[in-house]
Amino acid sequence: MKLPPGPGVWPAFWLNSNNKKDDKTPSVEIDVLEYYGQFPGVIHSVWHIWDKVDSAKNTGGEVVTNVPPGSLNDAFHTYGVDVSPEWIVFYLDRKEIGRTKTPPEHTKPLMILVNLALGGGWPIDKTPSPSELLVDYIYAFAPDEAKANMTCPD
């Protein structure tokens, strides 16, 4: 992906569980990349557990990665995540930038989303127009069949 420059842009590449409306079990979100154009030298890789019964129990964490300002706007880069029963591992240009233990709530399939939003809590009056998020490709890999029926440890 090649990220758009400028304050107010908020591109993201993320994974989300697709819970049924009446499913009260926690949902999981993994943000492979969140980029706030206000801060051109930083990307955020974040994980969330959204408790649908008691929002006070929402939890998560993040990996903040410093990059040369503007470098993500000037060239294409690869962003990735490997989600296993043991670890969530984040990558930038095929190099690990952080990891966390996979939460026990992480039991549902994840869907892939890529979007360019505006704002993210920041003003958009100085956002360049047009702002474009360029995506060359997205790959998704299935788990090793020998491990496909594994469950996350308690």
Automatic annotation (TrEMBL):
Its EC number is 3.2.1.-. InterPro entries: Beta-glucanase-like (IPR000757), ConA-like_dom_sf (IPR013320), Glycosyl_Hydrlase_16 (IPR050546). SUPFAM superfamilies: Concanavalin A-like lectins/glucanases. Gene3D superfamilies: 2.60.120.200. It comes from the Bacteria. CDD domains: GH16_laminarinase_like (cd08023). It is an enzyme of class 3 (hydrolase). Residues 1-146 form the GH16 domain. Keywords: Glycosidase, Hydrolase. One of its GO terms (molecular function) is hydrolase activity, acting on glycosyl bonds. Belongs to the glycosyl hydrolase 16 family. This is Glycoside hydrolase family 16 protein.
